[in-house]
Design a protein that fits this description.
This protein is an all-alpha fold. The protein is built from 1 helix and no strands.
Amino acid sequence: MITFFTIFLVLIGVNAVMMIVSMRNVTKKTKQKVSEKSTSVIYPLDLSTPDYKKAV
């Protein structure tokens, strides 16, 4: 039983460390992408097409 809890707590600790490192990397990447990105072009959708094609 002690062995199980020891392994279990070690795995939880490793998982916590990996999550913290991952979250730090994600926040760094998003800050860089936002600062590098300039204005983006948004193209309008052409929803009013008068041409209808026959389905069959």
